Amino acid sequence: MYLIVVGAGDIGTPLIDLATAGGNEVAVIERDEERADRAARQYDCLVINDDATSKETLRDAGAERADALISTTDRDAANIMVCLLAQELSIPNIVSVVHNPEHMSVFEQIGVNTMQNPQSLIAEYLYRAVSRPSVVDFMHIGEEAEVFEITVGANAEIAGKTIQEADAEGLLGDDTLIVAIERSGEERPITPRGNTRIAADDLLTIYSGDGVTPEITDVFGHTEDDG
Amino acid sequence: MYLIVVGAGDIGTPLIDLATAGGNEVAVIERDEERADRAARQYDCLVINDDATSKETLRDAGAERADALISTTDRDAANIMVCLLAQELSIPNIVSVVHNPEHMSVFEQIGVNTMQNPQSLIAEYLYRAVSRPSVVDFMHIGEEAEVFEITVGANAEIAGKTIQEADAEGLLGDDTLIVAIERSGEERPITPRGNTRIAADDLLTIYSGDGVTPEITDVFGHTEDDG
Amino acid sequence: MYLIVVGAGDIGTPLIDLATAGGNEVAVIERDEERADRAARQYDCLVINDDATSKETLRDAGAERADALISTTDRDAANIMVCLLAQELSIPNIVSVVHNPEHMSVFEQIGVNTMQNPQSLIAEYLYRAVSRPSVVDFMHIGEEAEVFEITVGANAEIAGKTIQEADAEGLLGDDTLIVAIERSGEERPITPRGNTRIAADDLLTIYSGDGVTPEITDVFGHTEDDG
Amino acid sequence: MYLIVVGAGDIGTPLIDLATAGGNEVAVIERDEERADRAARQYDCLVINDDATSKETLRDAGAERADALISTTDRDAANIMVCLLAQELSIPNIVSVVHNPEHMSVFEQIGVNTMQNPQSLIAEYLYRAVSRPSVVDFMHIGEEAEVFEITVGANAEIAGKTIQEADAEGLLGDDTLIVAIERSGEERPITPRGNTRIAADDLLTIYSGDGVTPEITDVFGHTEDDG
Amino acid sequence: MYLIVVGAGDIGTPLIDLATAGGNEVAVIERDEERADRAARQYDCLVINDDATSKETLRDAGAERADALISTTDRDAANIMVCLLAQELSIPNIVSVVHNPEHMSVFEQIGVNTMQNPQSLIAEYLYRAVSRPSVVDFMHIGEEAEVFEITVGANAEIAGKTIQEADAEGLLGDDTLIVAIERSGEERPITPRGNTRIAADDLLTIYSGDGVTPEITDVFGHTEDDG
Amino acid sequence: MYLIVVGAGDIGTPLIDLATAGGNEVAVIERDEERADRAARQYDCLVINDDATSKETLRDAGAERADALISTTDRDAANIMVCLLAQELSIPNIVSVVHNPEHMSVFEQIGVNTMQNPQSLIAEYLYRAVSRPSVVDFMHIGEEAEVFEITVGANAEIAGKTIQEADAEGLLGDDTLIVAIERSGEERPITPRGNTRIAADDLLTIYSGDGVTPEITDVFGHTEDDG
Amino acid sequence: MYLIVVGAGDIGTPLIDLATAGGNEVAVIERDEERADRAARQYDCLVINDDATSKETLRDAGAERADALISTTDRDAANIMVCLLAQELSIPNIVSVVHNPEHMSVFEQIGVNTMQNPQSLIAEYLYRAVSRPSVVDFMHIGEEAEVFEITVGANAEIAGKTIQEADAEGLLGDDTLIVAIERSGEERPITPRGNTRIAADDLLTIYSGDGVTPEITDVFGHTEDDG
Amino acid sequence: MYLIVVGAGDIGTPLIDLATAGGNEVAVIERDEERADRAARQYDCLVINDDATSKETLRDAGAERADALISTTDRDAANIMVCLLAQELSIPNIVSVVHNPEHMSVFEQIGVNTMQNPQSLIAEYLYRAVSRPSVVDFMHIGEEAEVFEITVGANAEIAGKTIQEADAEGLLGDDTLIVAIERSGEERPITPRGNTRIAADDLLTIYSGDGVTPEITDVFGHTEDDG
I need a labelling partner for H82 at 20 to 30 A (CA). Which of C30, C79, G5, G98 fits? Predict the structure, then answer.
């Protein structure tokens, strides 16, 4: 894939890292000279030290043969101008970060894929880290359901029981499913069966139709407020 | 929960939004006057317009009774100073964003929970958006496994089949599990059973021990490179 | 008409002047405090001192009942963001200045009327002022033709002749038409007839299918290079 | 013609473009290094990266053999100083943009030709674009009269009629003249005769002694307020 | 006299001091707020904190009844704009400082009196202070002649002699005249007569047709190079 | 003479001009790179682009063999530091401009010659230019007396009279002396004798024990207020 | 004592703290508004928010009755100007910090006491902290001698011996003296006598005519390079 | 010793001076280009012009073989980040300046040696210079005791007496000890014996268990308040 990354800042840099590591051909456009130099030094990519809101710059970056462009500057207005120019140059796949949530619909209106509000995502992770510290990672499924990772506490009710036993005791609700079990010493996650026994310190991937509720974290030995 | 949020910028603002909406008591410390004013206007929280790298400011923000502090400024050095002062003031739960990945271990070294590299997370989402556009959302489970959401394409091989049929045909590998099915018209995700029939346009939550591979996206009707 | 003017700078100020003088209801959005204050002092209009790339600001300016919005800031990216937000808010008529000619098509692509490259227009006027100093004002008709104003020189061949005589002598080409005659002492321009006599110092409005050529300026007594 | 352009900004750049394209010898004086470099790269002209309010700089730009100087900086005071120095150096033709309308008379007082208030011109175009959207371009003739371009609407009363017929029906007032007709498919504007038939979608160049009035736009099928 | 002083900086401030002390009515225009405030606090004058390159500001300062305007800002271009506007407003007497000697003729060209190059004046004083340290003050008369003040050294040839004696001995050339004698203990300068005796430490005012030459300073007991 | 000039700004530049023209060896210290370059280009002198408040810089400029140093920067504190360092390095003759009159005594206290308040001098010249426009140049002698240049007006009482006649009529007071007469056509000023006749348009150098009073300017045909 | 402190920065703040705690009457002059406000809030002192290089400011701070002035700004030139003005105002005791060591003599030349190069002092402490980590504090006596504090190591040769014994064994050179012994559990330092026994962990104050040498630190159980 | 110095400012510069003079191998990290250049010019050390809050920079400076790192930047947060990174890189000896006293404990908490509040130290010296001007230098021993240097005044009670005599008269308290005597003409300090005679102008090093009290300074002929 030929990929143009606009901006080599906080977000652009790990993106260039991922994209070059993935074996893609990468062109970077960065206005700031110092950042451009650093990107050129660290990664195997073409770096153009110029303003991306110009067709000439985009063409220099290989717009006519690019498969995708990702705009990561920290100003929404600049990102939208870049995306519109990229559309004119017929880049097939265009994605942008959006900083002001209010601007999301504007990007959608012109047909640009957007990163679903990165700051809110980070904010939610931070908030979870203090309000649900037992939850290691999580993903929303629809409005309420979630898949999440949680550690089994030493005194958790479920610890030492098989999944069948846990089900039998009604520990897990109808709409709750243990998807995978990461266990110290195992190379890959264990696919849970009825007779798989849950142990303390297991890191479980759970699907819950009601999301992460105090009832559920409780089962795994974590007492948390409904904050 | 009594929560101190340091910084009312791009990340801090949606965090204050979440935290106040969650019914918590929130104190915000923001050095920039304009940002401080805006936070005070928009949210039901205490806002202190001062430098957070001072015990006095932290005490004014109620450090002695705070349950948690989240530091979200855009300078790692400032965040670490805030976290160290918060430790001195015995705030039980301290979390910080970290911008330079190299600094992650420094925060761990002093015992502060960190947001696992927010820019990398965003970068990965952006990268997925162009390299695996069929994948709507995803979460890593251990090194390789992933839970992800994917839409069933109109011409997907699996469309129109029950899960049993799909299993029988070996469409899904041993280490792949359909966790949930979001379907237009249904209020909540459907918990899949053997006789549940997959339809085009269903949004499936999949667990795959090998992560999102071209083989899997292929089953759901999406032809993507291994880029 | 209810009109929102974005920007109270060099272009915005005379626009507010015109619009208020024309009896319209005018709301102005200007980020710079000093400019906002000056506009509020000088004109009978509502002035909002805020960033226009926000729906809230546009709503405060009365977007939901505005007949038109004109964006005049000096940054194309800001103008395009304002126009897209204005479209979302269903403002019926949206116009913007565009500074970089390359960006014209981008504005058109999203369906915004644009001022046809104001700097080029000014540049052309300036250039004419030195290359065709006899031409007072001009307007392009299609690719080549022009309507223009020119003064009749004291020694012009045409001076003292009627239009019929001039035609008879072939002074004016087939594709040239005297549209109007402004003459000192007359309140309104004279509509030329066959027997109307051209006098030195008359200010003629001419249509020429070939534009302003040295041949034509020559007829009116002005010797100019073909520069 | 040997032409000195002072300033390579928004107005100066298209001016340099016009002047070099017109085969003139062009010298540019621009204080800002980046702008000076860009001008030198893009155009075939001499570029001097220095302050123009100095005779030495003007001499370096070839003042003693220049036919004209056009000052386009965005500060009136700088423009006036440049013009006065240019007068001292006996440059025959001196033109300047003026930003503050109040300063027009000052330039006139010292005998410098000025661009007739560029911002007002742009402002009027923008204003027309919302108040008379059917009018494509226009030019003032004296106080009230105007030449303007207007499209013939599909339902216009005049559509399908010859000019004679239109005249006979009194559709166009006494003081109104169809100057030229641009028609899709025709290379040059058509010179209208009595039997020329007006068609929908024709772009007419009209002379009107009363300017663009609602009565006239009405004839061409556009209903507009008298705003 | 009603006097407008533009600029309350290093030169403007002592000027305001002189002008108010002289019983004049003084209006000051100063753009910088801090300087404007200080002037208003220290002097009995009207202070307008605004940009002087605007007729409105000048009118606010009482231009229509002013007897004179003195422009003292440190930018020549601003001074010239102010002077031209002052001419338009018919202020009878207009004076300006000029910083770049090259700009002197420009001010003269538009008919503004100028301070004869203040920096050069200061520079000459400084230069004299090291090259002719015995000369206390001086004034040029035409090209070569000078009036100057010089102290009579203890060992000066002229000390102890009457003017007649000095003349008789030919100590002073034909074209040299002792204009006045300041002597410690005398309230006013002594008008020299033939029998007036010159004493060591007298401060003489001398007219010399050849200016300050080493021959002359020698007579008064100062040995100086011709540097 | 070997002369060090500190500062190549508004005052320093004409000083360098004078000093190099006078055949001196000149070293210039200027911190600003652009100014340093310009001085090096324009004058035959050594230019050091460094901070002068350092002995090393002063030594580089040749302090150990300098006859004099003149400090002309626009900050008094910097000038005083330079002068003190120059004293340490035993430069025999040290002179400085002083901007704040209050600081004059401080310079005197450390034994540095100072330019007697340059801004006040300029201010007085400017003030005279409007209050006594007939006075071309002037110099104070003690507290009240002045030597000044004045033009003889066409209708001056004194015009056409010999000095003897003027004295006889008591036109000039006891304490007033005509020092020299500059006359169009004469190469040098005329030394006035009793029978020398004063003509209109003569430029007289006058000594007046009472300074420039309205009585005196009146004699020379200028009616001025006592402002 | 009435004390004026100039500057409320890093050095000025603890100085104000000390001076107010010592019961003195303190006036502070600080140009920066924020710093001035903070000083006024935290300490019981008069704070003047103005430029100290002005006699008026110094008088407002009570210069005429001050016993001492300490200048602590971070610019040497400003400090010297303040000190000179303070001398003029006859403040009896004037002290200043000096940043550039080269400027020390300049301050001495004008008779101002100076803090003996604070940065060098800090630098030496820092350097000792890594080159002689066993030395807790130290003070130079003349060129070579030092008084210093050192901890007695667990395996130090001297540990467990009386001073007489140590002397007898020649552990301490002739020119070395144990001045005082701080011992855990003792409220005040012990004055050493011949029979006083040195214990491990004692903190000794030592006078050494040769300064801190490796031989000496060795006796106290610390092996350090001669770095 | 291999030493890394972070920061080449006011404190870093004399530190580099000391460390290179002491024969150590020194690497300097300084972000500011001008400062970095100056350090490289003046000292025999490796200079890295980069941000020190990066492991890569620290490694470039030789962190893996460094014996010590001293952080001297003027921002505590930067210093703490540098120290934490230095700990990660296992630099054995880490020292930092701390500007805000409140931050001292934070540095201690992470196990970094700190310069004991340099600003307070300087402040105390300055304060002593005005409150105890007779005390030349001093060092605290525990809470109250001090070693200090004091000059013997001409009229001091102790002048001319032997130490025995002084003891006999009870001039010095029990807890006071004369440690050393610096005397003009002697190369090294004199070690005092019972028969050593104290002379006026001797500079004594005194140990006093009660610190510097008025009683003690009195004995040496200095009358000072208890300020």
Answer: G98
pTM of this prediction?
0.71
Domain match, F112 and F20 both:
yes
Query: DSSP labels for G125-146?
Result: HHHHHHHSTTEEEEEEETTTEE
- Residues A192-201 have a mean pLDDT of 92
Q: What is the pLDDT of residues D63-110, one digit of tens each?
A: 999 999 999 998 999 999 999 999 999 999 999 988 887 888 899 888
Does residue G226 sit within a domain? Answer: no
Site from H53, H87, H90 to mutate, B interface, most B CB atoms within 10 angstroms:
H53
Does H125 sit within 8 Å of G68, measured CB to CB?
Answer: no
CA A143 to CA A135: how far, in whole Å? 18
Whether G145 maps to a domain, the answer reads yes
Closest CA to A110 of A143, A71, A142: A71
- What is the domain-level CATH number for residue D177? 3.30.70.1450
Same domain membership, residue H167 and residue H90: no
Give the integer Cα–Cα distance in Å for A165 and A157. Answer: 11
Quote the CA–CA distance of A147 and B188 in Å, as a whole number.
14
Could you tell me which residues are beta bridge partners of residue G146? G140, G208
Q: ipTM of the predicted structure?
A: 0.81
Q: Helix C118-131 vs helix D118-131: angle between axes, to the nearest 10 degrees?
A: 130
Whole-number pLDDT of residue H117: 61
Note the pLDDT of residue E215.
Answer: 87
Residue B10: closest CA among chain A residues belongs to which residue? A119
Is G180 within 8 Å of G204 (Cβ atoms)? yes
| Residue finishing a domain among E116, E148, E163 | E116
pLDDT digits (tens, 9 = 90+) for C58-73: 999 999 999 999 999 9
Residues F90 and F8 in one domain: yes
Residues E104 and E19 in one domain: yes
Residue D207 three-state SS: strand
Interface residue of H51, H102, H114 to substitute, partner B, most B CBs within 10 Å: H102
End position of a domain, from candidates A116, A145, A161: A116
Number of structural domains found in chain F: 2
Please give the Cα distance from F194 to F168 (Å, whole number). Answer: 11
**CATH number for D61:** 3.40.50.720
**What is the rounded CA–CA span in Å between residue H115 and residue H119?**
10
Chain H hits for G172, CB-CB cut-off 8 Å, are: none
Whether residues A96 and A129 fall in one domain: no
C102 to A54: CB separation less than 8 angstroms, yes or no: yes
Of A55, A81, A103, the CB nearest to C76: A81
Q: Count CB-CB contacts under 10 A for residue E186.
A: 11
User: Within this chain, do residues C147 and C89 fall inside the same structural domain, yes or no?
Assistant: no
Assess if residue H17 is contained within a domain: yes
Q: List per-block mean pLDDT (blocks of 10 residues) for chain F, which spans 227 residues.
A: 92 91 94 93 95 94 95 92 95 89 86 72 82 84 90 90 91 89 91 92 93 89 64
The per-residue DSSP string of D163-198 comes to HHHHHHTT-S-TTEEEEEEE-TT-SSPBPP-TTPBP
Could you tell me if G93 and G160 lie in one domain? no
Count, residues in chain F = 227
pLDDT at position A224 is 63
The answer on B109 and B6 residing in a single domain is yes
Token representation of residue A38: 């650093």
Mean pLDDT (whole number) for D111-126: 76
Residue at D122: amino acid letter: I
Q: Is the pLDDT of residue E119 over 80?
A: no
The residue in chain D having the minimum alpha-carbon distance to the alpha carbon of residue E83 is D106
Structural domain harbouring A34: 2-116
Rounded to a whole number, what is the distance in Å from the CA of F52 to chain G's nearest CA?
11
Residue G154 confidence (pLDDT): 87
Question: Which two structure tokens, joined as six digits, stand for C50?
Answer: 């805020």
Q: DSSP readout, G53-102?
A: SSHHHHHHTTGGG-SEEEE--S-HHHHHHHHHHHHHTT-SEEEE--SSGG
Q: Let me know if residue B226 belongs to a domain.
A: no
Output DSSP code: residue E153.
P
